[in-house]
Amino acid sequence: MENSVELRSLGNTGLKLSCVGFGASPLGSVFGPVSDDEAIAAVREAFRLGINFFDTSPYYGATLSEKVLGKALKAVGVPRNQYIVSTKCGRYKEGFDFSAKRVTKSIDESLERLQMDYVDIFQCHDIEFGSLDQIVNETIPALQKLKEAGKIRFIGITGLPLGIFSYVLDRVPPGTVDVILSYCHYGINDTTLEDLLPYLKSKGVGVISASPLAMGLLTESGPPEWHPASPELKAACQTAAAFCKKKGKDISKLAMQYSLCNKHISTILVGMKSVEQVQINVAAAAELGKGDKDEQTLAEVEEILKSVKNQTWPSVRFSVMDVKSSTPTVFLAIMLHRSVLTIVICGNCTTKFFDDNTKMD
């Protein structure tokens, strides 16, 4: 294993995570098919370059991500105590269920798919879509029992609105929740997670930040059509990407390095499915470690994004529909969530999404 990736402590857990984390959602073929051989090669390369943290969920690819990751980890043959695996509960292909009964069953299902006896971190997945009081009073106590049984080592919660984290952490006994996973809130366009870091440190809670590319906003190709960002934010990011390309720079690399700079964030989680992607992400971290950071281009990009800085969007539920035809598809989605009725009418969709319409931060 080439230790070219910095290791950082995760709160009070005692775990040391590679600052670049392997997001395994693409192994569920959610962004195109991935063969077992490709997955195994990507995981092997991750280990070779010093990545020791792998994150998945039964929701990713309707359990396929867990299965493929488990198969890849077994094929590579690295001793179990030399890497850290995180999976999740509460969000499934069928919908959300944070009941004690379901999450207790969920860990056994995940362990079977991952071919493991335990996972290091077990996280409640996108808790803003459930009852936060249920998370506090039912779900987390159930996870504590799993911890006592040796099936999980640490407990985490994930979601988009930053307010959900303090809501839960202020209502559970100290040390109960070990980790939070936030996404799209620490990058060039949005640094609002930074305001929460002192609070999380005071609680001894480790911080994982996912989606440094803001779900595709900070890429040359741009975000998918369903991306819930405002037209203004999308346009500004597109302008920034074009500016970087004209200079011969890669905005994705710039964004990755920006996110990696904050040492109070234990790991930056990014989706990977190929050897090349692993190499690109690790190279970005390695260059940063050598002080090779393009401060001038970063400052210019920040200026372009200044008018939309810290602009976010409501949490959304989405799942890819298996629509092969180009025939216009129209659907009506109605959801009642925390007494907020949301109606979404979408035409020409290959993706459906539900606007949660609740912002807690």
Automatic annotation (TrEMBL):
Cite the NADP-dependent oxidoreductase domain residue spans from the record. 20-287
- Which Pfam families does this chain map to? Aldo_ket_red (PF00248)
The protein, known as: NADP-dependent oxidoreductase domain-containing protein
Q: Which GO terms describe its cellular component?
A: cytosol
Q: Which domain of life does the UniProt lineage start with?
A: Eukaryota
Q: What is the lineage of its organism?
A: Eukaryota, Viridiplantae, Streptophyta, Embryophyta, Tracheophyta
Concerning CDD domains, the annotation shows: AKR_galDH (cd19163)
Molecular function via GO: L-galactose dehydrogenase activity
Q: Which GO terms describe its biological process?
A: L-ascorbic acid biosynthetic process
